[in-house]
Amino acid sequence: MTDCIFCKIISKTIPADIVFENDNMLAFKDIHPQYPVHLLLIPKIHIKSLEEVSAQNANLIQEMLLTLPKIAKENGLLEGFRTVLNTGAGGGQEVDHIHFHLIGDVRHKIK
Ligand code: AMP
Ligand code: ZN
Question: pTM of the entire structure?
């Protein structure tokens, strides 16, 4: 999807502060961080939201879930972290390319 901002980050058409990348997914710093550590983890294929996850692509979501703790630790979140997945306009989703927010405070002060 050419007008998707996250697809443009994947194709390196627009820059991002990338903290993790493999063949299937990419993690980068949120441009408007709400916490001391605020990352976004996205799949490299364009899946609009959780409502478009199916048996065909659920393995990718599984891989993302299994990778989140490693990315958290590598970014200083040694005592835990929060994940947020907004779905649709009613769920506060602003970018229509599925993404996990990975957020936390290295001083573990999430309230
Ligand atoms: P959501 O409301 O769940 O769709 O979250 C979208 C997130 O993407 C917001 O926290 C934005 O700050 C973030 N965001 C939007 N554009 C960019 C960008 N170019 N680079 C990094 N983060 C972005
Ligand atoms: Zn996309």
Answer: 0.95
